[in-house]
Amino acid sequence: ELKVEQNPLFLSMQEGKNYTIYCNYSTTSDRLYWYRQDPGKSLESLFVLLSNGAVKQEGRLMASLDTKARLSTLHITAAVHDLSATYFCAVVSNYQLIWGAGTKLIIKP
Amino acid sequence: DTEVTQTPKHLVMGMTNKKSLKCEQHMGHRAMYWYKQKAKKPPELMFVYSYEKLSINESVPSRFSPECPNSSLLNLHLHALQPEDSALYLCASSRSGLPSTDTQYFGPGTRLTVL
Lengths: 109, 115
Prior knowledge:
A: 109 residues; mainly beta; six-stranded mixed sheet; B: mainly beta; seven-stranded mixed sheet
């Protein structure tokens, strides 16, 4: 059974700083997603990572995938308050999404 | 257009009531999903419809009854719910029918409170 672990689960940081969220998964998968969720809102797809070494960037967010290490990272560069949200990684297993617990990110002005 | 719509946005119901949640997408997606999400937790998969047929039922209690009237619509019928069923109910859709690993697009959710 595939398990997905995210860390940290909670992160409070100042604007302008850089930080990384980690997503580890226990068995082989060929696809990993990152989603964002604002409080009380729905889930927004950020990135899909398909292959080893894949890197995708959107604004101040950059996601990467190392399938050999079974590790994905979501890097935040020069954080701004608008990026405050909960970020989930999700890994495909048997055509279903297996979700990490989520990282609640608070960025203070 | 990557929009999935859900109605109602909020629903309060008693344990003896019968209500329905509605989800709609016009993207031509062939798979539709119901998820339940409790506060501070990731979504939990409840049901998956693929090509309008129920493909996955994650051992959900029978007080939740899904229905897919056509390729654009997904309903979740609720009956005799318990207070612990209070949660955010999310609908999602993806382009291909199962087996599929396509991106799932989520609706805004229905916040359900069971009294």
